[in-house]
Specification:
Layout: H1 2-37, H2 46-102, H3 110-124, H4 129-141, H5 151-154, H6 162-169, H7 171-179, H8 186-194, H9 215-230, H10 241-251, H11 258-270
Helix pairs in contact: 1-2, 3-4, 3-9, 4-8, 7-8, 8-9, 10-11
Length: about 280
């Protein structure tokens, strides 16, 4: 509806201006004809005629300013609608993830907690608002690839078989495939694809290491690991705070980025909200 109204407005405005310019041209031709063919005849005084022309030109200039302002407003409206559509798509997928997590007591709220922790780390590292927005979306969507994995594998209490583990390791690539139609999530897709890579190069799916892994993926990986250790799972109870701190320290430079771990560990010491369940 907004686009149709925009086109209608532009059509009316353009037609009106053409009419005014045509009238201006006609008046000028008539005036020149009178000067050439009837030099002694003065139907309209020159000063009055000039004043009319100037008024018409001034009116056209004002209309151009008004039109320019209206176009800017329409552009803002279209941008807002576009942003709302993007958010609606993300919210729909997030709701799907939440529905899947609701079925499992052990992963209930996992994506939301990971996102909350990741954003706190990003804030502590003074990342830009754009980076935090990307982390927010990537955090919410990071486990969407598990939707296609059997519940029997995800909730298995016993040790996974090699085949089952390979199935689990496919979930970052599955997520990228699911999100591929949403072109505006290109940065988020790359972060999600990387969030199980390891700093020492022993992660998956591509075996990236060190600086090959983007900072945002490193942040989500640390938040993901923390929540996994602090949450009760089908195959174990939640770990103690002391054990979690020790494991995170051990992961520095092996599983996780030293820079992110060095930021996160002091946060755990001073921010009780990070431990809230």
């Amino acid at each position: 509806m907004l686009i149709k109204e925009s086109r209608r407005y532009q059509s009316i405005s353009r037609s009106f201006k053409v009419t005014v310019v045509t009238l201006l041209f006609a008046l000028t031709v008539i005036r020149l004809s009178l000067v050439v063919y009837f030099p002694g005849l003065e139907i309209i005084p020159d000063k009055f005629f000039l004043l009319v022309i100037l008024l018409i030109l001034f009116y056209l200039w004002v209309q151009e300013l008004i039109d320019f302002h209206n176009i800017l407003e329409m552009h803002k409206d279209l941008s807002l609608v576009h942003e709302e559509l993007k958010n609606a798509q993300i919210d729909t997928i997030a709701a799907l993830i939440k529905t899947v997590e609701e079925k499992d007591f052990y992963t209930h709220g996992h994506s939301e907690r990971v996102t909350k922790i990741a954003l706190k780390i990003a804030e502590e590292m003074n990342l830009s608002e754009e980076a935090k927005s990307i982390i927010n979306k990537a955090g919410i969507l990071h486990d969407i690839g598990k939707i296609g994995i059997s519940d029997a594998i995800l909730n298995k209490k016993e040790k996974l078989t090699p085949e089952e583990w390979e199935e689990i390791k496919r979930h970052p690539a599955n997520a990228v495939a699911i999100l591929q139609p949403l072109k505006f999530l290109s940065s988020e897709r790359e972060i999600i694809l990387q969030h199980h890579e390891r700093f020492d190069g022993k992660g998956y799916p591509r075996g990236l290491k060190g600086g090959e892994i983007c900072l945002e993926a490193n942040i989500i990986a640390v938040a993901d690991t923390f929540d996994a250790m602090y949450s009760k799972r089908a195959y174990r109870d939640s770990l103690t705070k002391e054990t979690i701190l020790q494991e995170l320290q051990k992961s520095r430079g092996t599983q996780h980025s030293p820079m992110v771990i060095d930021v996160f560990l002091p946060m755990l010491e001073k921010d009780p909200e990070l431990w809230a369940k």
